[in-house]
Amino acid sequence: MHTTPDSAGHLSARLRRSALLAVLACTLQSSHALAQDTSAADSSTQRAIEHVAKVAQYEDAINALQSAHGPFDTRLLEPLQGLIDTHIENASFEQAFALLDQQLQIQRINHGLYSAQQIPTIETMLELQSSAGDWQRINETLQYLSWLYQRDESLPTEARLAGLKSVGAWHLRALGQDERAREAHHLVRLSILEDKAAALAEEQFGAESEALVPYLYDKSVADLYIALAIMLTDDTSQDLMLETEGLRSRGSIGSGGGAGLGVSEVEALYGSRASTVIERSFKANMGASYSELERIRDVFAGTGNREAEAMALLAMGDSVLMRQQFEDRPGNFAGMRRGTSSAGSAMMSYSDAMALFQEAGLDKALIDALTRCPVLLPATVFHATVTAAMPDCVHVAEPVSYALADYNLISTLIPGLEGKAESPEGTLEAQLRFNVRTNGQVSNMEVVTISIDNTPNRVKVRKLTELMQFRPAMRDGTPVRAENVQITVRIPAARE
Asked: 145 vs 108, 154, 159, CA distance in Å?
């Protein structure tokens, strides 16, 4: 472009003016950012001053009470709690933890070693220990809290039941976060707690009450987890056999008693994967799980609740299906070729459930909606109605696809073991697409997306899907192959 001297001067002025405006804009932005930084710094300083003042106020009150009444007076509990809350708000967890321990000493001295008054303090300790990832201390705290709920009969039964459930939930959570070496411990503790909760609920509600059912079902699921871990894991399997088979109490061979058999002795006697011991333990725990489902069916049969009885039959069919799909089969190979090629004898319970649904007067369209999609097993909650049990699934007939709910699976070795979703950095998320056969097993698996795409993570996800077990989709009571099933799973990242 050709320019005259005048136009060149005009252009130069425009450029200078644009440059000045740009500099002014940058200056204003810098000033605004500086003002924001200064404001944030002032706010942070003010919060720090307020924190110090609150701490000093509570400490003065605590010191005055200690001087007047001694270090274990119950009047100290309130200002201690205020100081604890202040430290937690400021993320000063170590200081808070020391004060919680002081609170516990006061409560134990004034109310007894197993008093319920200390439960809120212990629960706060658990949360702080969890934030620090201190699972050794968490396990010790859980053991003590479990004793409290079992021994203190002054608590209302409903509170004791809720407490046992809360401790059980911590053990379930630990399965995804604690060391793998303690996996058997958490599974056994979960089963023991569910057993005690079921027994307490039976005392409270009666053996024939529908209110007992959720506790029986949770006990059934806990036994199922142990059975699957015995069949599908290695070190955890050995530890569980030592616990559930009572080998520790028998003493070493030829010793006449003593410390009991260790893992090395079990391997020497039966082999590192002793099929006879594993099969016996697997079937015993599966049998215990199935027995609780039978009790649930009997409860609903006694109350005349046909729909709920049919739901119990559906759960019994799931139990039979899992037993036959995970038990050892001579001549089978590793991987996908496990179990049987069809739903087998599980169909007897499924068919009985369908007939009972019809007898209960349920609409066929409702039953079809319940059975249209594959359902990941085990179902972790028992629903007494078809409406409540309706699977979270979007089914499209043409082209065929099934979009299932997202699952937070806290184990890659125990199928269907669900838990709380943890922090993203500790979780591997994968979107999968596969088919589900008429026996409920997965085939033709494809990883659509994966949060951290590398070979070890893809292997981890593939092993998980090989162990997934579904209740197959059914049409008019007959299992059908489900193609293009999509699901998102979240599983723990690698750990020691």
From this structure: 13, 15, 13
The predicted-structure confidence for 140-196, as pLDDT tens digits, reads as follows 999 999 988 988 888 899 999 999 999 999 999 888 888 888 999 999 999 999 999
- Give the HSE-up count for residue 57: Cα atoms under 13 Å, Cβ half-sphere: 11
Cα–Cα distance, 204 to 222 (Å, whole number): 21
Segments in 360-398 forming alpha helices (H) = 364-371, 386-389
At residue 202's C-alpha, the angle toward residues 200 and 204, to 5°, is 70
| Separation CA 8–CA 1 (nearest Å) | 11
CA-to-CA dists, residue 106 to 88, 99, 372, 471, angstroms: 20, 11, 58, 53
Q: Are strands 401-404 and 375-377 parallel, antiparallel or unpaired?
A: unpaired
Q: Which residues contact residue 301 at a Cβ distance below 8 angstroms, ignoring those fewer than 6 apart?
A: 309
- CA-to-CA distance for 175 and 492, rounded, in angstroms? 10
Question: DSSP labels for 56-104?
Answer: HHHHHHHHHHHHHH-TT-GGGHHHHHHHHHHHHHTT-HHHHHHHHHHHH
312 CB-contact burial (10 Å; exposed 0-12 / middle 13-18 / buried 19+): buried
Give the pTM. Answer: 0.82
Rounded (5°) CA angle 67-71-76: 90
Q: What letters, b where the CB count within 10 A reaches 16 and e where it falls short, cover 165-204?
A: bbbbebbbbbbbbbeeebbbbbbbbbbbbbbbbbebbbeb
CA angle 346, 217, 442 (to 5 degrees): 45
| DSSP 8-state code for residue 445 | E
Furthest-apart CA atoms within the chain: distance in Å: 113
How many C-beta atoms lie closer than 10 Å to residue 263's C-beta? 14
